[in-house]
Amino acid sequence: MSDKKPLLFSKTNYTIMLAGIALIMIGFITMTMETAQYGFGPMGLTIGPGFIMAGFLVEIYAILHKDKAQPE
After folding, report:
1. 55: left (phi > 0), else alpha (psi -120 to 50), else beta?
2. pLDDT value, residue 51
3. 26: helix, strand or coil
4. Distances (CA, A) of 61 to 14, 23, 72
5. Which of 14, 19, 41, 47 could form a disulfide with 36 if both were Cys (CB 3.0 to 4.6 A apart)?
6. Is the sign of the CA dihedral 46, 49, 55, 61 positive or negative?
7. Is 24 within 8 Å of 2 (Cβ atoms)?
8. Is the pLDDT score of 10 beyond 60?
9. Which pLDDT score, from 0 to 100, does residue 57 have?
10. 64 three-class SS
11. pLDDT, tens digit (0-9, with 9 covering 90-100), for 31-68
12. What pLDDT shows up at residue 71?
């Protein structure tokens, strides 16, 4: 009864996904550290959103990444 189903992604994919989540979190933390009124400084308008966008791009790459020697 203990049929082991293979994971949807490989270990490499999950590692890349964790890196993407870390980038997204860094972006949101950077945006909250902005001292300008209403967050309209450089950290709130460019640096933080840049980290968030990079994090989402890393997430997309992690989903689409296939290992070359993937066991079947």
Report:
1. alpha
2. 98
3. helix
4. 11, 14, 22
5. 41
6. negative
7. no
8. yes
9. 98
10. helix
11. 999 988 888 999 999 999 999 999 999 999 999 998 88
12. 57
